[in-house]
Amino acid sequence: xxxxxxxxxxxxxxxxxxxxxxxxxxxxxxxxxxFGTKNYYLRADRTVRDFVRQGIAxxxxxxxCMRRNLKGKMAWYEFVKIL
Length: 83
Fold this sequence. Notes:
Blueprint: H1 6-24, E1 26-28, H2 29-38, H3 44-54, E2 57-60, H4 62-67, E3 76-79
Antiparallel strand pairs: 1-3, 2-3
C-alpha cells in the first residue's frame, strides 16, 4: 500500500489539538476553528467532536454555559481526561 506520510501529518495535528485542548481547559467551537485555521487543520472541529465521543472532552450544556457566564451561541467544550 502507498504511504504518502499523510497519516503521520494528521496524527501530529490531532496531538497538537489535544495538547491545546488540555492547556485551554474550557474552549468554544469558535476557538477550535481559529486554532484549526492557524494550524492548517481544517477538521479540528470534527476532531473535537471525536474527543467528546471518546470521553476526552465533554460538551457543556446551555444551562451550565449560562451559570459559567460563557458567552456566544456556539458550542462550548471542556477537557476532562488526562492522557
